[in-house]
Amino acid sequence: MASRRCQGGFTYVVMLLAVALLGIGLAATAEVWSTANQRAKERELIAIGHEFRDAIGSYYRSTPGGASRYPETLEDMLKDKRYPGVKRHLRRIYRDPMTGKAEWGLVMAPEGGIQGVYSLSRQVPIKHSGFQGLDFELENARTYSNWRFIYLPQFANLPR
Q1: Which of 11, 28, 84, 99 has the fewest CB atoms in 10 Å of its CB?
Q2: For residue 103, is pLDDT > 60?
């Protein structure tokens, strides 16, 4: 009977150790998944930022009458009221992948109108370098709200 108690205690300790190791493994997996998820959201934010920048540029370049103007609202890019028919520069107002909302910070042009957009998230980005083309300004940003996607006519011919 005494030997059964020793074996029962040993099994109990092994099970506690197994549960502890499983918990550590799950915590590590959750950390990796969280990082991968944030990186995917960063890629989505960059792609959406490019869509907004391109739409602002399209709106700016297609101003009738020659005097280029930036859109007054994001909705102006969904249906350009300057034309009698339907002219769209943007398919929809995208949701910000970092906040989950369709709300964006707006970079206003000195002459009026929206020149660019940025996320309202104060979260710290994982990606700090390796940006190319027009995204060079995203380097070393402290928060996602510093990732600004701005249309500047003088840089219109540079690669994204």
Answers
A1: 84
A2: yes
Task: Give residue for tokens 């108690």.
Answer: 5
Dihedral, 48, 137, 124, 31 alpha carbons, nearest 10 = 70
Higher pLDDT, 111 or 66: 111
Domain ranges of the chain: 40-155
CB 157 within 8 A of CB 130: no
In angstroms, the Cα distances linking 44 to 6, 39, 40, 55, 149 are 57, 9, 6, 16, 13
State whether residue 118 is helix, strand or coil.
Answer: strand
pLDDT digits (tens, 9 = 90+) for 22-46: 878 777 777 778 889 999 999 999 9
| Model confidence band, residue 159 (pLDDT cutoffs 50, 70, 90) | low
Would you say 115 and 55 are in contact if contact means Cβ atoms under 8 Å apart?
A: no
Q: How far apart are the first and last CA of the chain?
A: 76
- In contact, 113 and 119? CB cutoff 8 Å: no
Enter the pTM of the model: 0.78
